[in-house]
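Retro notes (design track)

What went well: tokenization of the new backbones is finally stable.
What didn't: we kept losing track of which sequence belonged to which structure.
Fix going forward: every design gets posted as structure first, then sequence, in one message. First example under the new rule, 483 residues:
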């Protein structure tokens, strides 16, 4: 007997799934933002036995409803301010099902998903003002590729930077590896996301060769300190090759001053990589767009449609000024693929690590096409406005202090109760279930950081967050409530 459901059974189950998803999205704001799973529910999942016999589709949906959708992360809720996790864009949710039904490998070839990926990569570039990603036969044209996230995009971009540095040194990196090259030195601030160090380590560069460059008082990379560090490393016979700037740090949302950094990079022959995972999209907001001046001068930009745009996870993007640097780093066409009609651009699988690649572009297309550029601008501008409002509420609150200026849509703040209280506050707020915030260490101090990505968040949600922080702090310190 076939294990493939009948078309009719599939249609009925698909309709039921649509209802499940719609009910979930409609009800998400009504429940607690998050709550710890009951031990029995956790164990029920952890200890799921491998089934010998199959379950009909409607039986699967019952499990999804009762055991999975009932215990969400919370990031669909308007009072969720944790990490950098957005609510899913409904158009992207629909596209995810359609993409799975089509189920191509977007490695390359002549089918819609491949051409759509080239189009949405160009859209992404156009949205953030990066050189339009339309690779052609001409050498040195810009290009890009969708990835699982910025961590993977960073590996691709840093591999391209490493390849170019080796090539300039007359070294065949792909054949000889790093042996025989002087140490390649990279530069970033202490606030740079950990994915950069991971990539540096993975690419064999060694975290010892990732220099920590000083920041200015606003948390932005200091270009003069960068130039000094490069000069010192050159004098020591090392090979400076890369500077990483941030378009929105994960801790405070700080945006580096790209123009002076790009000036140093140009003068010193460094590859300028920008980590825009979270914050590059902020350039769409006319109120803060001028902070991003010079971002387009980067050699590479990594950014995440699955963050501020709300494209359902996973979807990152690597944009490069010269697409050949990626292709030269990764292209390896085995004999079983050699006859495929590649065209000028070749296959996406020549530009990164993945061979079989998911159909990510449909959910990106759906999310952007549904809102339009104007809709995206309105949503991003709304969240930065909310962040500035939250910053003002914090400043007006005698129990709280703002620990960094609000550059984008992250608000870093502290309770006056001291480091131990601030360390424990995120978990205490989360456990109360009404708002969700996470913590970080910023300049050696424990802080809370609220990341605003959801345009459905209201001013009342912000007041609720601060009320929850105050109440949780009172619980932690054993002080009686003021109200
Ligand atoms: C600034 C920044 N860079 C990089 C990353 C890593 O991106 P991803 O989780 O998509 O791999 C994050 C994730 O939060 C981030 O905020």
């Amino acid at each position: 007997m076939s294990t493939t459901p009948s078309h009719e059974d599939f249609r009925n189950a698909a309709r039921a799934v649509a209802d499940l998803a719609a009910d979930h999205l409609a009800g998400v704001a009504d429940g607690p933002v998050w709550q710890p799973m009951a031990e029995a529910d956790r164990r029920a999942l952890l200890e799921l036995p491998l089934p010998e016999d199959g379950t009909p589709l409607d039986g699967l949906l019952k499990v999804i409803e009762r055991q999975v959708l009932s215990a969400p992360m919370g990031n669909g809720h308007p009072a969720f301010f944790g990490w950098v996790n957005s609510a899913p864009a409904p158009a992207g949710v629909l596209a995810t099902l359609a993409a799975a039904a089509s189920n191509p490998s977007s490695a390359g070839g002549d089918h819609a998903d491949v051409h759509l990926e080239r189009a949405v990569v160009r859209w992404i570039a156009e949205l953030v003002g990066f050189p339009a990603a339309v690779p052609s036969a001409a050498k040195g044209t810009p290009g890009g590729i969708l990835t699982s996230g910025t961590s993977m995009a960073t590996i691709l971009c840093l591999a391209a930077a490493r390849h170019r540095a080796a090539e300039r040194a007359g070294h065949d990196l792909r054949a000889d590896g790093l042996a025989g090259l002087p140490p390649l030195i990279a530069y970033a601030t202490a606030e740079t996301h950990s994915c950069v160090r991971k990539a540096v380590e993975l690419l064999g560069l060694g975290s010892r060769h990732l220099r920590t460059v000083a920041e200015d008082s606003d948390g932005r990379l200091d270009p003069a300190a960068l130039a000094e560090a490069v000069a010192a490393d050159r004098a020591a016979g090392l090979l400076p090759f890369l500077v990483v700037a941030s378009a929105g740090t994960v801790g405070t949302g700080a945006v580096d001053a790209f123009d002076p950094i790009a000036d140093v990079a140009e003068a010193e022959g460094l590859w300028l990589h920008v980590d825009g995972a979270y914050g590059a999209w902020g350039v769409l907001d006319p109120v803060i767009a001028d902070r991003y001046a010079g971002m387009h001068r980067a050699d590479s930009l990594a950014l995440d449609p699955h963050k501020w745009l709300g494209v359902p996870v996973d979807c990152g993007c690597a944009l490069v000024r010269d697409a050949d640097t990626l292709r030269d780093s990764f292209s390896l066409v085995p004999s079983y693929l050699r006859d495929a009609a590649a065209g000028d651009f070749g296959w996406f699988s020549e530009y990164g690590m993945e061979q079989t690649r998911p159909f990510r572009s449909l959910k990106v297309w759906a999310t952007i096409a549904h809102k339009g550029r104007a809709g995206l601008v309105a949503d991003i501008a709304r969240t930065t406005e909310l962040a500035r409002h939250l910053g003002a509420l914090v400043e007006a609150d005698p129990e709280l202090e703002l620990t960094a200026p609000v550059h984008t849509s992250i608000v870093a703040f502290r309770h006056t109760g001291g480091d131990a209280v601030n360390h424990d506050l995120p978990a205490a707020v989360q456990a109360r279930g009404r708002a969700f915030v996470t913590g970080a260490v910023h300049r050696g101090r424990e802080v809370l950081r609220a990341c605003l990505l959801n345009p459905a968040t209201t001013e009342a949600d912000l007041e609720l967050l601060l009320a929850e922080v105050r109440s949780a702090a009172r619980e932690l310190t054993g002080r009686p409530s003021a109200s």
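Added context from the reviewer: The mean pLDDT is 95.
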